TrEMBL record:
Keywords: Antiport, Cell membrane, Ion transport, Membrane, Transmembrane, Transmembrane helix, Transport. Residues 703-786 form the MrpA C-terminal/MbhE domain. One of its GO terms (molecular function) is antiporter activity. Residues 73-115 form the NADH-Ubiquinone oxidoreductase (complex I) chain 5 N-terminal domain. This is Monovalent cation/H+ antiporter subunit A. Residues 627-690 form the MrpA C-terminal/MbhD domain. The chain crosses the membrane at residues 6-27, 34-53, 73-101, 113-131, 167-191, 211-236, 276-296, 303-322, 328-352, 373-392, 412-433, 453-476, 506-525, 572-592, 612-635, 642-662, 668-687, 708-728, 762-780. InterPro entries: CPA3_Na-H_Antiporter_A (IPR050616), MrpA_C/MbhD (IPR025383), MrpA_C/MbhE (IPR046806), ND/Mrp_TM (IPR001750), Proton_antipo_N (IPR001516). GO terms for biological process: monoatomic ion transport.
Length: 802
């Protein structure tokens, strides 16, 4: 084929990010044509991915891998099979049309380039997600979709509603991201594999593990938050605060489809269990009906479509839960159909809003004569949404009904849910396509007219594709359905898609029933909307309000915890810290038997057994000990602050001398510097107070502090004595000696330890020093600024005369 998988697949994942970096400059130079220019990147990705259709349909799986963290067995690995290719083609193809649309939709906007950059990064995150084979890479791109969607939903950051919607989406989906990370760790611990393809090779190992339930819950939580499953669905309608191109992309091929992709990808290792089937079928069915009913009560066209997206996501999850070959086939076909018609309808609604100034379905009518291209796009997309023949939506509906052809009670119940949900979606689809364009002409805030080519091209192309793919049913089944179904089930899947109508089949009459109920819903739409709104008003509580209450409670709890833990009293901070330090020293010694090993060595008759005695001290060593004792006595008995500060410095000097005498000159000089600076700085600070005063404290405070100090000193002494009486473990020092030159290329082992082996520790110390320096500089400048302000402050009236 003439390509390098390692280079090409990785380039597909990173190319949109590179384009995102260049987007602001491109928009600055090309203006209104920026969308056409930047769309070259996703269009090129789409064309490139088309090359894989035949090889993948023939059973080939293309992989690429780069070493990432080889010490932990983690690689940046990618995989193209039927499932990832279907999603990647949808993302890049629809993405190219939406980038073109976005360039025109935001033409003249001061932040057009930034918006296009966010959109391209959003696309790149989703492409990386569906192409990732490594669970670590999958998690990384998963979180990138949350971050980029946050930027897009809150793009109009001047509006509070946009900021709230962005934060809500980020909070909910990040909870799922944490669940995905934990789930990946659990799966890796069970299977020993980081790659999804490797996990799949382990067969039933994951299902037979005692931790299967934990892994299942974590992956379902991740998928449910991302794909807005009940009761975690409430963030998705609020995301409509984003500009229309974002809504079209997010609802059709990105973000919300990530959870569906994750469930499909994990089906071979987590699926086919009673828990999997029950949970997905139950929550998917509830989400389908909930979203479909919620769409009925909306009057904002974008909100109507957003609620139907929730319903469609529930339908996809339900089909994955059923897990049969027909159900998985229906899921794949419905994913493609939904991507086509939902992106087309959202883009059409954007044109209506852009050219009329309103999205209120009750304030629109008669636009067909003024916006004929938009009407054609909306009508064709709605035909696929309704599931009429000659559309991909029809093929999907037939497959999902076929999956429930069994006559048992459970299948009939799920079938009833599907018929009801599809009928409600059909009614909304008819309303979105018919109400704004038919009937008498209604005056709109802006004079209605057709949008430019960049706005109407995308909806028209998507609407036509929804029909063209169905007309090429044989190719569609061979190139899309079969490889994707095989990737999900791990078994060969054969397509039996057909456009033929068979009045003798039960499936035909189930479709007729769905269409009839959809027409009924459309004609009763206003009455149903009024009833549902009265019901909602009477109920009062919503999941959205529940989220606000939870966030408010979290903020209140955080505030209370902060006030309790960070009360601002330095004295109590120090008492708590050193008390915990004493506990950390003494409790392990007592509980782990450290004192038992120490007792024989320190008994009065066995000091010599330690190899050390007080008589071994030289005269200058006794002098250092005496200096430390004198400093301690003077410090405790100090009558004023200046004497206490100097005595504290004497203690530090004694410690530095001990370091010097026992072979650590670098540490000794560091200690000297610290002590000198400490005494100088404390003295300078205290000059603002009174150095000749003594800090008098209550007796109980002195006893408390003294007890804590004695316990800390005793703990350190006992710990060091225990270490010295034991056998010295030289493994770490031997490692430093053996590797400092060949690995770190340094002969000074101390420097190598600080810079290489403890590099992050040293970096942290440097960061602390830098932060302290910045704080001191800010204080000095603030003091100078205050002094200057006082100098130029005008005198009160009459001051000069006095």
């Amino acid at each position: 084929m003439g390509y390098s998988p390692e280079t090409s697949i990785i380039l597909v994942a990173i190319a949109p990010f590179l384009a995102a970096i260049l987007a602001p400059a491109t928009a600055r130079f090309t203006g209104a044509h920026a969308g056409w220019v930047l769309a070259i990147v996703p269009a090129a990705i789409f064309v490139f991915l088309l090359r894989f259709l035949e090889p993948v349909a023939g059973g080939e799986i293309v992989t690429a891998s780069l070493e990432w963290a080889p010490a932990y067995g983690i690689a940046l690995s990618f995989l193209i099979d039927g499932l990832s290719l279907t999603f990647a083609l949808t993302i890049s193809g629809i993405g190219a049309l939406i980038i073109i649309y976005s360039g025109s939709y935001l033409a003249g906007h001061p932040h057009q380039g930034r918006f296009l950059g966010f959109m391209l990064a959003f696309m790149g995150a989703m492409l990386g997600l569906v192409l990732s084979d490594s669970m670590v890479a999958l998690f990384t791109f998963w979180e990138l979709t949350s971050v980029t969607s946050f930027l897009l939903i809150g793009f109009d950051h001047a509006r509070q509603a946009a900021r709230r919607a962005a934060i809500q989406a980020l909070v909910v989906t990040n909870l799922g991201g944490l669940a995905l990370l934990l789930g990946a760790l659990v799966v890796q611990q069970i299977t020993g594999r980081w790659e999804l393809s490797g996990v799949r090779e382990t067969g039933d190992l994951l299902r037979e593990s005692p931790f299967y339930g934990l892994a299942l819950v974590l992956f379902l939580l991740a998928a449910f938050t991302k794909s807005a499953q009940f009761p975690l669905h409430f963030w998705l309608p609020n995301a409509m605060e984003a500009p229309t191109p974002v809504s079209a992309f997010l609802h059709s091929a990105t973000m919300v489809q990530a959870g569906v992709y994750l469930l499909a990808r994990m089906t071979p290792v987590l699926g086919d269990t009673p828990a999997w089937m029950t949970i997905l079928t139950l929550f998917g069915g509830v989400t389908l009906l909930w979203g479909a009913v919620a769409a009925i009560k909306q009057i904002d066209l974008k909100q109507m479509l957003a609620q139907t997206t929730i319903a469609s996501l529930g339908l996809l999850v339900l089909l994955i839960g059923l897990g049969s070959e027909a159900a998985i086939a229906a899921m794949i076909v419905y994913f493609v159909a939904h991507a086509f018609y939902k992106a087309g309808l959202f883009l059409t609604v954007g044109v209506i809003d852009h050219e009329t100034g309103t999205r209120d379905i009750t304030a629109l009518g008669g636009l067909m004569r003024k916006m004929p291209a938009s009407f054609i796009a909306a009508a064709l997309a709605a035909v696929s949404m309704i599931g009429l023949p000659l559309t991909v939506g029809y093929l999907a509906k037939e497959e999902m009904y076929l999956a429930l052809a069994e006559a048992d009670a459970a299948s009939l119940l799920v079938l009833a849910v599907l018929i009801a949900g599809n009928a409600l979606l059909a009614g909304v689809g008819i309303a979105v396509a018919a109400r704004p364009f038919t009937g008498p002409t209604v005056e709109t805030p802006k004079p209605a007219h057709e949008g430019p080519l960049a706005l109407v091209a995308g909806p028209l192309v998507l609407a036509v594709l929804g029909i063209a793919a169905a007309l090429a049913v044989g190719w569609f089944g061979h190139a899309i359905l079969e490889p994707a179904g095989t990737a999900i089930l791990g078994l060969p899947v054969e397509s039996h898609l057909t456009l033929a109508l068979n009045p003798a089949s039960v499936l035909f009459w189930l479709s007729v029933l769905t269409w009839a109920l959809g027409v009924l819903v459309f004609y009763q739409l206003d009455a149903l909307r009024a009833f549902l709104r009265r019901l909602e008003t009477g109920f009062g509580w919503t999941f959205d309000k529940g989220f606000d209450a939870a966030m408010f409670g979290l903020i209140r709890l955080s505030g209370a915890a902060t006030r309790f833990l960070h009360h601002g009293r330095l004295e109590l901070y120090l008492v708590v810290f050193f008390a915990l330090f004493a506990i950390a020293l003494i409790v392990p010694l007592v509980s782990l038997g450290g004192l038992e090993t120490l007792a024989p060595a320190v008994s009065l008759g066995q000091w010599a057994a330690t190899g050390w005695s007080w008589s071994d001290l030289a005269i200058y060593e006794w002098a250092v000990v005496a200096l430390a004792i004198i400093g301690l006595v003077v410090l405790v008995a100090a009558q004023n602050r200046l004497v206490a500060i100097v005595s504290l410095g004497v203690q530090g000097i004694a410690v530095a001398l001990l370091f010097l005498l026992f072979g650590a000159p670098d540490l000794a000089f560091t200690q000297f510097m610290v002590e000198i600076l400490s005494v100088v700085i404390l003295t300078l600070v205290m000059t603002r107070l009174k150095l000749d005063e003594r800090d008098r404290r209550p007796f109980e405070d002195a006893m408390r502090d003294g007890t804590v100090a004695v316990l800390c000193g005793a703990g350190v002494t006992l710990l060091l004595s225990t270490i010295l009486t034991g056998t010295l473990d030289t493994r770490l020092s031997d490692f430093f000696l053996a590797t400092s030159v060949p690995i770190a290329h340094g002969h000074n082992i101390v420097n190598v330890i600080l810079v290489d082996y403890r590099g992050f520790d040293t970096l942290g110390e440097i960061s602390v020093v830098m932060a302290a320096g910045i704080a001191i500089l800010a204080l000095i400048r603030g003091q100078r600024g205050g002094r200057a302000a006082r100098q130029v402050e005008p005198k009160p009236a009459g001051e000069e005369a006095r």
